[in-house]
Amino acid sequence: MDRHRNYQKELDKLIDKIQKAGIRPRLLLHACCAPCSSYVLEYLSQYFDIIIFYYNPNIDSKEEYDKRAEELRRLIGDMGLSSVELIIGEYEPEVFYQTVKGHEKDPERGERCRLCYELRLRRTAELAKSLSSEGRGIDYFCTTLSISPLKDAEALNDIGEELADELALRDGSCGEGPLGDSDFEQRSLVYLPSDFKKREGYKRSIELSREYGLYRQDYCGCVYSKRGCFEEASLQKDMQAEDVQAEERPY
Ligand code: SF4
To answer: CB under 6 Å to ligand 1: residues?
Structure first.
């Protein structure tokens, strides 16, 4: 793992190539909630045909799961993104609890969160492959999660790239990516390098949340985050670095 990568620059380079090639690749975008999706949709819908996958078994109640899903559906409509398709995943909290067993007391950004990212990204990558096998050709997948200053972008990109490798090896689907060159991975499904908090993405998501009157939850999603298991000192430091006001704290 390379801790010196600049994922935003890598994405800039990829988008530049996409534009020069005159193509609009298809992206399967995992979404955690409407506020985090707002900026990512505004940004990426300029360059990609997007299918959103809402799959978050980490959320602590069905009521909250449905509330976040409906808010996301409303946002897509209010932004006028009629070409964006929304797929709502099944609510299966038992899968989350099994996945993070033994890590219930881990701090935010610890192993529990890494397992939680992996669970959601794995299901996204598998859906991308399954949609492709139905002839719907998904070129890239990624997640909105990196927009939060509390989420570990390096971990998310590492996991995404490992999953793309794993799936390509498993089903022998290595081949030309949408750009058909060697700068990006030569396989049919590629993890989109991304760190959406860069370029003030997180601040823009707050502006858009206000503009569209979005419900902004006050905890990340799981019951452990609701109990306040995150490290307050670390959070305060990150918020200062991002110039984020207390009422605009990330989740
Ligand atoms: S704090 Fe958030 S990212 Fe971490 S395990 Fe809970 S829901 Fe998942």
So the answer is: 58, 108, 112-113, 116, 220-222, 224-225
